[in-house]
User: Fold these one by one.
Assistant:
Number 1:
Amino acid sequence: MSEGSVVGSFVVPVHPHTVLAPNQNEGWQRLRDAFDEAAQTIKDLDADLLVIYSTTWPSIIGHQIQSDPNPEWVMVDHDFHDLGSIEYSFNIDQEFAHAWDDANKKRGLQSRCVNYKGFPIDVGSVVALTLLNPDNAIPAVIVSSNMYANRSETTVLAKSCLDVIKSQGRRAVAVTAMSLSNRMFTDFIKPEDDKIHSLKDDEWNLKILEFLKQGRLEDVGQLSRTIQRQIRVQKVVAFKPMWWLSAMNGNRNDLSGKVLAYEPIHGAGGAVVSIDPTPSGAGDKEYDEDDVEYFHGERGVLDTIDENDTGAQQSPVVEQASSGPSLWEPTEAEGSVNTDAAPKPVGAYPHARKVGNMLFLSGVGPRQPGTNAIPGGPIHDEDGEPLDYDIEAQTHAVVNNVKRIVEEAGASMDQVVDVTTFLVDMKRDFKGYNDVWAETLGKIGPTRTTLAIDALPTPIAVEMKVIVHLGE
Amino acid sequence: MVKGKIVAGCIAPHPPHLVYAENPSQNEPVAEGGWEQLRWGYERLRASLADIEYDAIVVLSPHWQTYIGTHFLGLPHFQGLSVDPVFPNLFRYHYDLNIDVELAKAIHDEAASAGLPVKMMENPDFRVDYGTITTGHLFNPEWDKPMVVLSSNRSTAYYSVEVMQEIMVELGRVTRRAIEASGKRVVVLASNSLSHRHFTTESEVPEDMSKEHITSHAMHLWDMRIIDYMRTGQAQRILDEMPEFTEQAIAESDGGGLSWLLSTLDVPDYPAILHGYGTIIGTGNAVVEWPCHAHEEADA
Ligand SMILES: [Fe+2]
């Protein structure tokens, strides 16, 4: 399976005019035409997933992900109800929604799926999916924007989405449903009198579009706090969609952008922008904000009592994983080799220990340092229900963890002399494991023993016990 | 024609948790109680008005949010399923409510002639917001009185609390004039919380009351200060301090309901009755009644 990626991104406007009344105003019609062009582009990209981040779906309890496989209802806008109703029936990728929810939790986010008949899907998502995916050919997923979230939380939300896109090998299109300047006229206007609310809004919108056209998405992300102050009605604490979209694109400034349309909708700035991950050739600038992998923000405000705080002795346990054994700090003794670049032990032992010119590694699995995520997915869920997982991805991750520990000891992989591998499902996994072995350790040539065992302490399928000869 | 009359004005907050905790047949999820202080507060409010006759309930809910003026539900009947987009796990309510379109139109017209941007909402597919439904259910679980439903204009976000209040005070005046001209007896409800900072996590059992408390001491102080003004007949001070209260307590009065209510009641200088106070995921909520029927002289 090839690794998944974001194959295209779009910024689209939220108000219902492009669906219900494009013929009432030439600008609305141009936005509609741009939507249609974007829909065709998405088709041509051969995308198999649409991910919508909607600014018109606020949430309070973390982020919410729509997981009703076929949400159906009739949407009427709170303000523009006289334009008519939009009947919808969408194709939601429930499996992806659940996987994203899990990935969010692994990265420290508060997250939940919502699957309720009659759930009121927000206007931005309804407009985006109606026009970008008219025949429902591409499964979609919708995420809310948390009212209180700031950049780190929004960035991590994108990274966990990418985790799933990669592990499922998806060709994803990322969409932000948003206005640029969002100030509307506060009185009723005739369609033909529509214009951007003020010159200042217009100038800022044009500046943002200039950046997007140059593929400088990360720069727009870093301008977001200024944009919020300058041209956003302060309905929420931050202007977030560009943070999410930039993180979905690896926080780059060398993308290729195209503005398909920019027009007023009742005074607000509506734009359809297409962003292609192909490098524009411009030098990419350094991503100089905190590149956060795991959300550590204060969200557990309901639980003020520290339940671990019972013993007088300092516990070596550093964290309790959401399921499975506790994680420990690696132990220290003469010759021990420990690194933050390898996953935390599940007991009182070091990552490796040096004796003379030999290095003995503790059993190494595929868990990722920091996030504790399992590439290729865990083999069962928290209730012990088996899950589909990717043995090749897990094996690759094991080899990478081994490499980090070996290098921490000042050695290199070509000094590995003996490996014992444990598989929990020999029948299912031997071939995949063996293929990865052949292209990695197999090229180095250590002796090898492969054993089938009943279980490992975490929901992983493969672990290796490695011995290294450090040389004379 | 007999002059119409406002028989009572109330703050009637709408967190869906209160309906959820009560397990009415209309709501799908099932709870093991919770938030009793507030639910019993609503009970006391209902008992307090049980012997008072009235024709219609006029409510302003901050969850029908309009950016272009104030809108009014403009069809005689709305029916459907309301799912709270924020707490869909708690609130999926099958509603069936009647609108006093005549009174709605009268307030609409009065507001229009005062120069306020207004619109009647006449799309039959429109889903009534969960704030209106929660307040409607808790105030009148029988749903046997027609309602007039006003949207919440977002002028606090667009301009400032001061501008919002200016608009809402004017809307309150026209609401009062239209009610008086209608010859009807009416209850007026502002459907909003007081301090409004939420927790962003939810306990495993949402109704676990061991986890429920105000988000911060400052929020508590503001809530008590405002309630004290209510209990001691100092509505004008609430209006005077509205900008500070709304900003510092992130209060749901940003939606205009409280300013509109106090103006509709002609800024009462008699004490309100506090029927209950409690927090809901950290926000401060009070059930409060101004018993106008006992204080305002019957005009000849
Ligand atoms: Fe509310």
Number 2:
Amino acid sequence: MINFSYLVFIIKSAFFDFSRNKVRTILTSLGILIGVFSVVLLMALGLGLKKYIEQQFQSLGQNLLMVLPGQGFSQNGGQGLIGGIQFDEKDVLKIKRLKNVQAIAPFFTKTLKIEYKNKSQITTLLATTGDAFKVIKVEAARGSLFTNADNEKSAKAVILGAEIANKLFGSGEKAVGEAVRIQKERFIVKGVLKKTGGGALGSETDMRAIIPFRSSYFLNPDKKFFAIYTEAKDAKSVLTLKDDIKKTLLKRYNEDDFTVSESSELLNTINSIFSVLNLVLVAIAAISLVVGGIGIMNIMYVSVTERIKEIGIRRAIGARKFDILYQFLSESVILSLFGGFLGLFFAGLIVLAVQRLFPAYLDFGSVFLALGVSSAIGIVFGVFPAKKAADLSPIDAIRYE
Amino acid sequence: MLILENVWKEYVLDQETKFAALKNIDLTIKDGEFSSIIGPSGSGKSTLMHIIGLLDKPTKGKISFSGKDISRLDDNQTSTLRNEFVGFVFQQFNLINKLSILENIVLPAIYARKQLNFDPRQKAIRLMQQFGIAGKENSYPNKISGGQQQRVAIARALIMEPQLILADEPTGNLDTKSGEGIINLLSELNSKEKITVVVVTHDRHIAAKTKRVIKIIDGEIHK
Ligand SMILES: Nc1ncnc2c1ncn2[C@@H]1O[C@H](COP(=O)(O)OP(=O)(O)O)[C@@H](O)[C@H]1O
Ligand SMILES: [Mg+2]
């Protein structure tokens, strides 16, 4: 029914009308442009956020189990971390003796000042074991990392993040072997970490100072830990170890006092929180698409009124209602798709621009959705004006002046 | 070819008043005729022509085309008949200004539903040569003279090889000389290509050039 030359003709005449009303066409498409732009951009950022979180988790060991106080991350987001219990060395030792434990790292943290000569920096100090470096996968750029043995000896050694080393010493190279003061106590810089920009310890990794926990008791007189990270021997033993840890801790604590979660569990929780958040944002942005659609509808009504005579001529030479409907519907779809393409294009530009800072990306789904939704808007909001044009009586249309 | 029996066209002006633009029209137009409908302004000539050309529907009465009753066809069927059997020529030319001359002429072919046994573009170019407007293919209607525009309109009316040409005051917007050219052209189409032609006019000189003159006054045919 619809042959190729018919299609070409319809599209050509649509473009002719657009080029005659350039300003109007651009203003009309602008609504759709903004709508598609914001929806696509938010989707790209959402996808990027998801990817970013996954990247961060990849730096955590695959077979990692996190023992956290309260409800952990698993239910109310991070809320459960507040309150709850703190763990002690006895818990650490008991877990260490369980089967299938490959590595264990208790964590104590405190925000304090670290000084070198007359310079000082605020850092969130981390006290843990040598195993921690395996669990959280960080490596030394200069010097070396402290070991479990250093911890047993209560060695006064400190590992600095790349950035804090730079700030205190000017470069990582100069830091190794130097003495810094942590609340009057002298610590020797044993190593400087590679720059991470993120990783398992969050964005502050590069500003961290890490010391053996046995050397941290002057800061932590109660000898308490806020979390214990454990790596299972292999993927198969993760769940067994999880059960064993639970059983062990239940002897001392109530079920609600602590949580043992796998890293994948945590990843899923965080992902689902951000997915919901992103969906809400995208839904809000989609409102502008509806506004854009109404703009198209408005202009299409104007266009029908302006072209009553033309419709009459076309009807006189044999165009059916369908032909007229099709002509106006094509115009609204082209108008909307034009806005959609531009919106996609600009969103793409922004995505490219931020990609160096943040792994935002467009997938096939968002491109498809953007173009699909703009065509759909063109059809939905174009069908009423097009129907009006098609339903004009041929005689009234051709007599119209 | 075309028979109108007891055809009425009434317009409802308000709740009480009706106005009959056509009253009890009985008219037969035979195959190959060259006739004119003449009458003063407002007498119902255009209304009659629109009804003959299936652009408008009568309030009452029967119209048959080649023996078939066509007064109760639906919109798709009348559109198809307009496309295939009728060619309109209007006083104001009624070309689409944003389309090129060539595109205007082939436009009816775009809406054709049947398989065409000719190439519309080639045919359009041939008609343009025949009508002395060759070379204007890519020009636009508002760039050529009125006489040329009316020739384009006639070419458009002919592109689908219709059996009937209906021309509503085709010379009304033209000077005498170009008007004469248009009437001669229509006359030639009738004599050489055996196309049935009906010309609406209020000009007796033009009516005199046709083989049959139908007089209409106040919506009624005068014998
Ligand atoms: N849509 C309409 N509503 C009311 N009256 C109309 C309408 N169309 C035409 N008429 C009237 O019908 C009469 C015939 O009109 P028309 O056929 O155009 O006359 P002509 O072509 O002979 O000048 C006129 O009086 C005109 O005012
Ligand atoms: Mg008239």
